[in-house]
Amino acid sequence: MSKFWIVLLLLLVVAVLAGAGVGGHQVSKSNTFCIACHAYEKVAWDHGEHYHTDCIDCHTK
């Protein structure tokens, strides 16, 4: 394998990993991701004083 193809392959791998990291971050910061594992009181959340606040706003500080 020539040096060009090795460098190209490495750049492709880095680009795919970076894209997966960004995509994973976007998915994991959504409320639907959080409630997939963590139970929440829908009525309390939807009608409480913090209905406009996302999970990530409180639980990552």
What does this structure look like?
With 61 residues, the chain is mostly helical. It has one domain (3-59). The protein contains four helices and no strands. It has helices at residues 3-28, 31-34, 42-47, 55-59. The protein is rod-shaped.
Task: Identify the notable features of this structure and list them briefly.
Cytochrome c nitrite reductase small subunit; heme; iron
Reported for the largest beta sheet, the result is: none
**Coarse structural class:** mainly alpha
Distance between the termini: 49 Å
Q: H/E series, N to C?
A: HHHH
What is the count of structural domains?
Answer: 1
Overall geometry comes to rod-shaped
Organism: Ectothiorhodospira mobilis
InterPro entries: Multihaem_cyt_sf, NapC/NirT_cytc_sf
Protein name: Cytochrome c nitrite reductase small subunit
Keywords: Electron transport, Heme, Iron, Metal-binding, Transport
Describe how the helices and strands are arranged:
Layout: H1 3-28, H2 31-34, H3 42-47, H4 55-59
Short description:
The protein has 61 residues and is mostly helical.
